[in-house]
Amino acid sequence: MISVTSTVDEAVGTLTFANPAQRGALTPEMLVALRAQIVSLERDYPRVRVVVIRGAGDVFSSGYAIDRIPAPHELPVKDEIEELCEAIENSPLVMIALLRGPVVGAALDIASACDFRFAERTCRLGITPARLGLVYTVFGTARIRRLVGPDWARMLFYTGDLLPADLAATIGLVTKVHDDPGELDRETYQIAHRIASRAPLAVSGSKQIFRALESAGDLPPEQVRRLHALRCHALGSEDAREARLAFTQKRAPRFTGTGGQP
To answer: Residue 201 CB: number of other CB atoms within 10 A?
Structure first.
């Protein structure tokens, strides 16, 4: 059953999302619900100061639900994924992603928007549009590039490979790796409560400064629109259709580089 739930323990909130039938795949409705829950928790600031975002059970998320990818003419410049990421980044609440299992595609984008990412050692992380014949958003691409630098960002986007948690930590994609689920939960919430015990204005002020520094190089709107056109073009391509067909047939896709119509 698909769900998004919110709980609060002292000054630390927890957002838990679930889609067990699809390994935590993210639907538009889940993304909207997560954003609404963040807004709700913000109303309790500074009583609530830190939020842990996690998937249910042993899974964070396998990415955006492939059966919900829109048609090219329906693809917005800022979709529900980006709206959630910006809500996370602009919130006065400190956001921590607790990662287990797969963290793929849009799920990695969401985790990258958080202030910290704590992962279980068996976690695998990657951004996979190259496997699906797609071009990812300019905003999400920039977000991941800021974390890992240009070379590793290219490696992630060009190969679509999933990295083990230890390597992800080495390149800056993960803040810290933990050996088992119990240790991951225990240390994540210890840090969350420690941050929540600090002066709220000092912490939220620092977060705003980091956000301003990270967004200093944002692209002008006309360039964002031009790059968005590349996404629409790829989404309408034969390669994108072949990727979806191969996914349903459980086989490797055969890409040709054949273009489509935006």
So the answer is: 10
Which residues form the domain of 30? 3-200
Q: In what order do the strands lie in the sheet with 102-104?
A: 102-104, 124-126, 163-164
- In Å, how far from its chain's centre is CA 72? 22
CB contact at 8 A, 166 and 177:
yes
Q: What percent of the chain has pLDDT over 90?
A: 88
pLDDT given for residue 219 in this prediction? 83
Q: How many whole angstroms separate alpha carbon 253 and alpha carbon 52?
A: 36
Angle between the N-to-C axes of helices 238-249 and 221-235, in degrees from 0 to 180, rounded to the nearest 10: 50
Residue 66 included in any domain: yes
Which two structure tokens, joined as six digits, stand for 114? 């958080």
Alpha carbon of 199 to those of 182, 206, 208: distances in Å? 28, 11, 14
What does the pLDDT read at residue 260? 58
125 and 79 Cβ atoms separated by less than 8 Å: no
Q: Flag whether 243 is in a domain.
A: no
Length of the chain: 262
SS3 of residue 148 by DSSP: helix
Q: What's the total number of domains in the chain?
A: 1
Is position 41 within any domain?
yes
Around 79, how many Cα atoms within 13 Å sit in the side-chain half-sphere? 27
Q: Which CATH number does the domain housing residue 80 bear?
A: 3.90.226.10
Task: Return all residues near 67 (Cβ < 8 A) that are at least 6 apart.
Answer: none
Q: Residue 246 to residues 11, 224, 257: CA-CA distances in angstroms?
A: 46, 31, 15
pLDDT at 189: 99
